[in-house]
Amino acid sequence: MDKKMHDKGLEVRKAVLGEAYVNNALKNVDDFNRPFQEMLNEYCWGAVWGREELPRKTRSMLNIAMIAILNRQHEFRAHLKGALTNGVSREEIREILMQVAIYGGMPAAVDSFRIAREVFAEIDGKA
């Protein structure tokens, strides 16, 4: 493991998803999933998210679309919050999900719009 890249990734992960979210994920680390968490921090968050060729806002927009199409609701919720942190507006999120509907399918968009509304309600204190 590249400790420097791992630590960079952990820093980026916390900045995007929030320290509480990441700390909660890390408190569940055990001998079984430790190698996976290390790989996630080093490669996903360090080697890719840590690159400067795309701004975090753009990376968040790409992730929203891809994760919505994959219909990974838990990850979508986390990355939706991260996208808002990275400056993606609700209007931009709506447009991304409209694109998902056409290119990824209506069922994925239906679930993603529902989750987005739930996340917005949480943030607005209406949940």
TrEMBL record:
Give every Carboxymuconolactone decarboxylase-like domain span.
36-118
Supply the InterPro entries for this chain.
Answer: 4CMD/NDH-1_regulator, AhpD-like, CMD-like
Q: Which UniProt keywords apply?
A: Lyase
**What is the name of the protein in this document?**
4-carboxymuconolactone decarboxylase
Tell me where the transmembrane regions lie. Answer: none
Lyase among keywords: yes
Q: Which GO terms label this protein's molecular function in UniProt? A: 4-carboxymuconolactone decarboxylase activity; peroxiredoxin activity
Tell me the lineage of the source organism.
Answer: Bacteria, Pseudomonadati, Pseudomonadota, Alphaproteobacteria, Hyphomicrobiales
Organism equals Bradyrhizobium vignae
EC number of the protein: 4.1.1.44
Q: Which Pfam families match?
A: CMD
